[in-house]
Amino acid sequence: MKIILAKSAGFCFGVKRAIQIAEMTAKNYRNVYMSGDIVHNEIVIERLKQLGIKKIKKLGSGKGKIFLVRAHGESKKKIDRANNLGYKVIDATCPMVKEIHRIAQREEANNRKIIIVGDKNHDEVLGILGQLKYKSYVIEPNKKFIFELEKLKNKPCSVVVQSTQDLEGVKKIFKILKRYIKDIRFFNTICKPTQQKQIEIKKLAKENDLIIVIGSKTSANTKRLYQIAKSINRKSYWIEDKKEIRNKWFKSINSIGITAGASTPMEVIKDVINIFDKF
Ligand code: SF4
Questions:
Q1: Number of domains in the chain
Q2: Among 38, 98, 115, 154, which one is least packed by beta carbons within 10 Å?
Q3: Residues 163, 101: Cα–Cα separation, whole Å
Q4: Residues 198, 182 within the same domain
Q5: Secondary structure E strands in 48-194
Q6: What is the pLDDT of residues 37-95, one digit of tens each?
Q7: Does residue 173 sit in the same domain as residue 247?
Q8: Pocket test for ligand 1, best of 39, 98, 124, 191 (most atoms within 8 A of CB)
């Protein structure tokens, strides 16, 4: 059986950086808190929990405490609040997400309405919205959004994109927006690692009999990789780890393409690859 692992499988640089910052912070300080998961992967979260990093729902008194900002970023309001409550804020936001914040803030300062293409409840999108002063709009791929456009068609608008969106889906939305809104600027802020993963999964899905995408079911970028793979190769499977692999998938299969989401640790990927030594 031929096994092809995508070069880009697993941690992207933003996730690696956030985990390194979290580990370093846990080493240097005792009371470290985050308002959610540092990245969307249960193994990583458990490891950081073992190091003493705790999750909190609400910010309390911050004296002697650290507030760790996750890779997806946080709203400006929350960071300001953490500072005001006395937390020392350590920022692990991915620089590519920060770049989206900068573009959105700059465009808004130029009196333009901001449209974000992304999943409206995703932490990154909430973080982008939380950088802005005025009402902004979120357009979710594959959902109806024409109603929103009625309100925006005579206003100058700028569009940014959640870093892990699917480029093809976003291009379709850009096309529709262009028809409705006269003065519109587009910023394709899908990050390079995501684009690379998407290019590779398309190729793998075309060239192999079966595709395995590894990553947490809470990871939006893994979901996207799976959807792209499935749209090209119906024998595509999304697993969290080796336990979910089923022998029946591999009848008459000669080659398997494997990729993994940006927050999937290499040890999980290796465990999956090792399974195929038995085939
Ligand atoms: S997927 Fe992209 S934006 Fe998100 S953490 Fe990785 S590099 Fe940064």
A1: 3
A2: 154
A3: 11
A4: no
A5: 54-55, 66-69, 88-91, 113-117, 137-139, 157-161, 184-186
A6: 888 888 888 999 999 999 998 999 999 999 999 999 999 999 999 999 999 999 999 99
A7: no
A8: 191
Q: Using CA positions, which residue lies closest to atom 7 of ligand 1?
A: 14
Same domain, 165 and 214: no
Among 40, 71, 94, give the residue marking a domain's end.
Answer: 94
pLDDT tens digits along 171-199: 999 999 999 999 999 999 999 999 999 99
Domain span holding position 267: 2-10+194-278
What are 116's strand-pairing partners?
138, 160
Last residue of one domain, picked from the residues 154, 186, 218 = 186
Of the candidates 74, 124, 140, 200, the residue annotated as catalytic is 124
CATH code where residue 180 lies: 3.40.1010.20
Does 207 participate in catalysis according to the annotation? Answer: no
